[in-house]
Regulatory protein LuxO
Amino acid sequence: MPHTPILIIDDNESHIMLYGSVLNDAGFSTICARTSAQAIELARQHNPQIALVDLVLPDGTGNDLVATLRDQNPELRAIVITAYASVDRAVAAMRLGVSDFLVKPVDPQTLLNAVTNARSDRNHSLDPSLMTRDAPPLGGLIGSSRPMKRVYATIRAVAGSVATVFVTGENGTGKTQCAEAIHALSSISDGPFVPVNCGVLSQGDLGSAIFGYASDAQSERDQEKIGAAQMANGGTLFLDEVCELDAMSQARLLQLLQTSSVIPFGSVDAHPVKIRIICASSTDPLEQVKSGKFRADLYYRLHVVPIHLPALRERGTDVIEIAEAMVIRYAAKEKRPTRTLSHDTKTLLQNYTWPGNIRELMNLLWNCVMVSDGRAIEPHHLPTHMRENIPLAPIHTPQISLPTSLQDYLQGKTLSQIEREIIEVAIAQANGSIPQASLALGVSPSTIYRKLETWGLPARRSRKV
């Protein structure tokens, strides 16, 4: 039972009566406002922890009101209600960090579920003390770069929550390992971890793989199939490449999130489940929403805690840490002597762009362990296309001596000239390694690559072997 009332803001009296009746019957206390001004005043007086906000109000927009209420109380959980499920409105609400997005007419049970979830979010909110910069690696994740430390910190902070997590990143960046680490640290780690790769199943099989189907004597389905959502009961359901779900499966997943129950195909019986959902995508889910391929309301439900995994080329020396660990692992697996990486090999690994990310690196190292006959993996063990690449074409590096004053150094130079000089010096000091230079400058490697292209300086050149 909440200690403070739920604030309802709507200019329609019948809606206020309906929402209030549903919540009061469920044991909640409520206070009501018809305008933004009334809501702000009531929020100051009663400090509500949950607010139901209509998007269209006589004296302003619901999104503006949510922003104001959250400025007053950052812990407030807002549930936005609208008669028009437009993508733009949903995206704007998402950016405000609201707890839920409901479309009128609102079913009483859906409203209760939204309020219950909002209360649960408050009771399992992220622990700021766990958001440290020096968080060590987790599970199968390897690397100590700053981007990965932020990932580890977020994983630790969200593990104790019941919030859904949306992991993004290029193919091969370790999204499955990230989901496994969240599950392993959670309070349901003793429960099952059930992964489903939505990108490899046909549209006809995908829905039944997740939700199952009932037996049907009039079709080929003469036996009941339990879907992954029921199999994950008491644990975690991981939906990889979730943006590949078809429209029907998206609707069923939304129903699962709203009601915490699964209805198998061909059945009318709902099976209650208690699961934590983690999903992942190698494409930008918001772009999928804007293009109409992914439901805005489903995205909103799933995108509660986002985690973005950086590409391997953006992780600096992590590639060496991962490579050394993998070489030891594969040598033990293949019962071969432990291998080391030569200095030249490390340089090549460091300066390669890794379009396939960690997956490409692992396959490469497994091959190297198999074909190398000495104690070290040398450049000639690497693929030809890697050996032919030199990290950086020769660049004229300005010899910048320390000026007597910053003003003397800046005198007569444009901003673009200063930027170019600083980037060129950083690359030279990193011995041609763009990932290392990017870390020193605090920017992503892709930013430097774009600058080099603009200046007509290729990031690599080839040499004939």
In short: Residues 8 and 32 are 5 Å apart (CA to CA). The longest strand covers residues 77-82.
